[in-house]
Amino acid sequence: MSNKAKIREEAKRLNPIDDLMFRKMAEDKEFCQEILRVILDDDNLIVLESIPQWIGTNLQGRSVILDAKCIKGDGTQVDIEIQKADDDDHQRRVRYNGAILTTNITNPGIKFENVPDVCVVFISKFDIFGGNLPRYHVDRVVRETGKIVDNGFEEIYVNTQINDGSKVSELMEVFVYDDVYNDKFPKTSEVKRLYKKTEGGLNVMYDIVKRFTMEERNRINKLTSILLKEKRYDDLQRATEDDEFQEKLLEELVPDEIAS
Fold first, then answer.
1. What is the pLDDT of residues 51-76, one digit of tens each?
2. pLDDT tens digit string along 179-216?
3. pLDDT at 117 > cutoff 70
4. Of the chain's two ends, which shows fewer C-beta atoms within 10 Å, N or C?
5. CA 236, CA 216: separation in Å to the nearest integer?
6. Are strands 77-83 and 118-124 parallel, antiparallel or unpaired?
7. Which residues of 231-256 are buried (b: 16+ CB within 10 A; e: fewer)?
8. pLDDT band at 50 (very low <50, low <70, confident <90, very high)
9. What is the β-pairing status of strands 77-83 and 140-141?
C-alpha cells in the first residue's frame, strides 16, 4: 500500500472524538450548537460564533490551543475539549485552559463583576471520575454549608465510555463509532458524514492528516538529531521501541510551541 493510500485509510478511520476531525467539524457553528444543546440541557441555546483551534496566549508561560471556542447567545464563552488518552491531570488542564481563556477575553480595567462567564466542556473516551456516569457537572461548594456558589466558571465532563441510554450517551455513540449516525442529531450526523463518506470531505481530511503526519515526522527527526548530537544512543534506541518514552522525550526536548 502506498503512503498516500495509508494516509487516506487513516483519514477514513477518524471520528468526531478525534482532534483532527472534531476541529474541522467545529468550523460549523450549527454542529457546535447542536452538541452543546444536548450536553448543557438547553434546547434553546444559541451559538453565535465557533472558532476551532483558538489560540490563547500567555506571555509569562504556556499558551494553549483550544479545540473549539464558542460564544453562546448570553455571552458565555465555551471551550470544548476533546481527549482520548487518560495520560495527564486533566482537571488541572481544564483549570488552566479556563484561566487562559478568561484572561484573553477580559478587557483590562474591567470590574470583576463584568468578567465574562466561561464554561469548559471536556469530552473524553474515559470515565474521568469513575462514577459510571456519562456526564458530570463540577460545582464550587462551600465545604462547611454544602452551598453551591457561582463565580462564573462552569465545568462539565462528558465521556464515551459509559452508556446509560441517555441522549448524551446517544450523541457520544455518534462521536466514536464509524457507522453510527442518528436522526436525533441531524447536524452532527450530516457533518460527520461529509468528512467520512464524501469524496470532497475525505480529500479535506486527507490533507489534514498528511500535514499532521509531516509535522510529527519533523519533530521526531529533530529529536533524533538532538539525541545523536548528545550521544544519547541508548535513549535513541529505546525511543524507537517505546512510544511512551519517545513521547516523553519529545515533550522534554522538542516541545510544541503551543500546547493543545
1. 999 999 887 877 898 999 999 999 99
2. 999 999 999 999 999 999 999 999 999 998 888 788 77
3. yes
4. N
5. 16
6. parallel
7. eeeebbeebeeeeeebeebbeebbee
8. very high
9. unpaired
- Please name every residue paired with 51 in a beta bridge, in sequence order, or none if there are none: 69
Asked if 8 and 167 count as a contact pair (C-beta separation under 8 A), the reply is: no
The residue-averaged pLDDT of 136-144 equals 97
How far, in Å, CA of 252 to CA of 255, rounded? 6
Residue pair 26/80 in contact by the 8 Å Cβ criterion = yes
Sign of torsion, CA 38 194 20 160?
Answer: positive
- Predicted pLDDT of residue 1: 60
Domain residue spans of the chain: 14-182, 205-253
Name the residue among 50, 149, 70, 63 with its Cα closest to residue 104.
63
CA–CA distance, 188 with 148 (Å, rounded to integer): 33
Phi/psi-derived region of residue 42, left when phi > 0, alpha when psi is between -120 and 50, beta in every other case: beta
Q: Exposure string (b/e) for 172-196, b if CB count within 10 Å is 16 or more?
A: bebbeeeeebeeebebbbebbebbb
Cβ distance 260 to 52 under 8 Å? no
Is a pLDDT exceeding 90 seen at residue 172?
yes
Q: How far apart are CA 211 and CA 13, in angstroms?
A: 16
